[in-house]
């Protein structure tokens, strides 16, 4: 039976591919909290876990494979939080099934993959957006408005960082023979050496996971991609993903972006924009949670503490995408910008002489 054609007032019917933490803890709750969105189905290779997690949703459709969800004719939009290496494959399959797709960042492993995804969206008349949720937070919108209006003058420098410690130091123990052995982190420590972000086959790495945020922010401020890149990355051993990256992005005419990311530093994030008349600083730009935030505006004769009410930026993201699905309006985060950011990630890795998975 064909699904009923939705009216402009009907909630957008969502499906989710996979049971990644960001989906379970952030995006699915955002969909469930919005009256404009409806969670219809989740596909997972561990369907029993999904049944246990969402036992309070008796009408939720739970699929044991991704294709079944993609082929569900009732679903209009699909959220994809799969490992980076799977983004292109499953996004294109969903787009070819005429589903609108919100895909986690980075959208693809390479710009070439991203271009194929964009072509598939356009060929099938559906929408595709990279899930940079922080761009929908009022503190970012306000900051970009201040910068665009010339409040701090012409921007000449951006400094932005994002890091957290994925690993804990290994333990040294003596086995029964008295031999010193190095083990992984203690049980219950929270660290996990099998973390998908640490697997080269899944296109992990600090730049792919968190460094893409500072790159995206620099591009949002300057309004165009860098013209040149100089970078270094640190990978513990050949064949492993990089654990830290740092780069200078040259946006021309003396305008620079300094970005860094790491899996081996404490949790930290910041964005500082320096113009000829002042400085704008966002202390927690990317994942501020739902608490009130503050943006600091330092001008020559005053310091302004702009307080921003706490919001769920994931809900703002899915509601924006859902509204675009209903109206047919292109999303605010344009695919052209996404492709430029993917190309910048590639340029950072090339400059550093680092061979990331070219899939």
Question: What does the model show?
Answer:
There is one protein chain. With 359 residues, this protein is α/β, with parallel strands linked by helices. The chain has helices at 21-33, 47-53, 66-70, 87-96, 111-123, 138-148, 206-222, 313-327, 335-352; strands at 12-17, 37-43, 61-63, 77-80, 100-103, 128-130, 155-163, 171-174, 180-183, 228-234, 244-250, 256-262, 268-275, 278-282, 293-299, 303-308. 43% of the residues are buried.
Order of helices and strands: EHEHEHEHEHEHEEEHEEEEEEEHH
Report mean pLDDT, rounded to a whole number: 91
> How is the biggest beta sheet arranged?
8 strands, mixed
Find the structural class using helix and strand composition. alpha/beta
Shape: globular
State the helix count.
9
| % residues in beta strands | 25-35%
Low-confidence stretches at least 5 residues in length (pLDDT < 50)? Answer: 170-191
Rg of Cα set? 21 Å
Helix coverage percent of residues? 25-40%
Span of the ends, CA to CA? 38 Å
Strand segment tally: 16
The largest beta-sheet arranges its strands as 10-11-12-7-13-14-15-16
């Amino acid at each position: 039976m064909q699904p009923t054609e939705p009216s402009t007032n009907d909630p957008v019917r969502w499906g989710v591919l996979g049971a990644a933490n960001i989906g379970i803890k952030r995006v699915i709750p955002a969909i469930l909290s919005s009256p404009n969105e409806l969670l219809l189905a989740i596909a997972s290779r561990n369907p029993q876990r999904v049944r246990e997690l969402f036992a309070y949703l008796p009408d939720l459709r739970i699929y044991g494979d991704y294709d079944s969800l993609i082929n569900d004719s009732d679903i209009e939009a699909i959220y994809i939080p799969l490992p980076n290496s799977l983004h292109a494959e499953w996004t294109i399959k969903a787009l070819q099934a005429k589903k609108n797709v919100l895909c986690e960042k980075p959208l693809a492993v390479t710009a070439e993959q991203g271009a194929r995804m964009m072509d598939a969206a356009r060929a099938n008349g559906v929408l595709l957006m990279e899930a940079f949720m922080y761009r929908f937070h009022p503190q970012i919108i306000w900051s970009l408005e201040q910068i665009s209006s010339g409040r701090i003058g012409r921007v000449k420098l951006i400094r932005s960082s994002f890091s957290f410690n994925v690993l804990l130091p290994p333990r040294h123990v003596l086995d029964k023979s008295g031999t010193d052995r190095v083990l992984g982190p203690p049980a219950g420590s929270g660290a996990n050496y099998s973390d998908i972000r640490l697997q080269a086959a899944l296109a992990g790495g600090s730049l792919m996971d968190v460094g893409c945020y500072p790159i995206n922010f620099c591009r949002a401020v300057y309004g165009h991609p860098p013209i040149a890149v100089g970078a270094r990355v640190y990978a513990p051993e050949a064949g492993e993903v990089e654990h830290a990256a740092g780069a200078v992005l040259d946006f021309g005419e003396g305008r620079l972006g300094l970005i860094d990311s790491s899996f081996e530093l404490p949790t930290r994030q910041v964005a500082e924009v320096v113009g000829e008349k002042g400085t704008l600083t966002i202390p927690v730009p990317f994942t501020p949670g739902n608490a009130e935030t503050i943006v600091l505006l330092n001008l020559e004769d005053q310091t302004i503490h702009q307080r921003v009410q706490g919001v769920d930026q994931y809900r703002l993201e899915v509601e924006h995408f859902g509204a675009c699905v209903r109206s047919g309006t292109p999303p605010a985060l344009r695919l052209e910008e996404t492709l430029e950011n993917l190309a910048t990630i590639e340029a950072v890795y090339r400059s550093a002489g680092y061979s990331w998975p070219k899939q």
